[in-house]
Amino acid sequence: MATVRPMTDAEREMRDDLDWALNAPEVQQNKGQFVAICNRHVYAVGHDPQALRADAAAQAECPIWRVVLVSVQADELLEASD
Amino acid sequence: MPVAPLTWAIHHVTVAGVTFPIARLATTLSLPDPASPSGWRTERAWYDSGAPLTVFPHYVHAVGIVWRPLGATTAWLGQACDLGEIDVWLPAPDLTSLAGPYRILAKFARSDPPSPPPVIIGAQLQLALAATLFIPPPPTDGELRIP
Fold first, then answer.
1. Does A1 touch chain B (CB under 8 A)?
2. Which one, of A30, A31, A26, A34, lies nearest residue A54 by Cα?
3. Which parts of B1-147 fold into alpha helices (H)?
């Protein structure tokens, strides 16, 4: 049986970052790369997710679990599944 | 009845001088993450009715999300995957609460293709939750209605 619970502050903040990233030019301009975000700010861009998370956490002075990683599609016309 | 919103994410692309809109149906999932003080993290997901199972790209689950392997392997976009199950929470329309936990089957990629997508929600989630998929045209959000 499913229950309903409030979002935690962290869940909400991460969701806000993800929603912002959908249309933020500073995120979407990085085609084919990962973008590490915290509090609607881009901290790192590149191809190594683990390194980007660590780099962003250090720069943003936030815990690594709080970093949101967005993969910007290189080709938006490709199907995402087989 | 819990209802998870599916938001139209529409971008315009230009190919050979022709500009047209393309769309994804986007939502977020709350996933079990022991590294987070609350025990949860939020990740972007696209709904894909053509995908039989939900797919967690490697870069998503490698942070330490809790899932249970079922001892079988499969593939996604040429990447070897483990078949497993995971408990997820889905957003409620008020955008301040979540419904769950819902146990789903999923592929957990051992590596990623170039430019991997976010989590892909496959049709098995709809089966497991006995959910109704409601997709009106934009700008109205779609919904997964869960009994």
1. no
2. A34
3. 58-61, 123-129
The complex's ipTM works out to 0.93
The pTM of this model reads 0.95
- H/E segment holding residue A58: helix A49-60
Chain B (38-97) residues lying within 8 Å, Cβ to Cβ, of chain A: 38, 40-44, 46, 48, 50-51, 55, 57, 59, 62-63, 75-77, 89, 91-92, 95-97
Structure tokens at B65: 């999300």
Q: Is A70 on the interface with B (CB under 8 A)?
A: yes
Q: In the numeric block, which tokens belong to residue B48?
A: 């894909």
Nearest in space to B44 (alpha carbons), one of B137, B121, B144: B121
Spatial distance between the Cα atoms of B122 and B124, rounded to a whole number of angstroms? 6
pLDDT at A1 over 80: no
Looking at residue A72, its amino acid is V
The alpha-carbon gap from B67 to the nearest alpha carbon of chain A, in Å, equals 17
Strand pairing of B97-109 and A34-38? unpaired
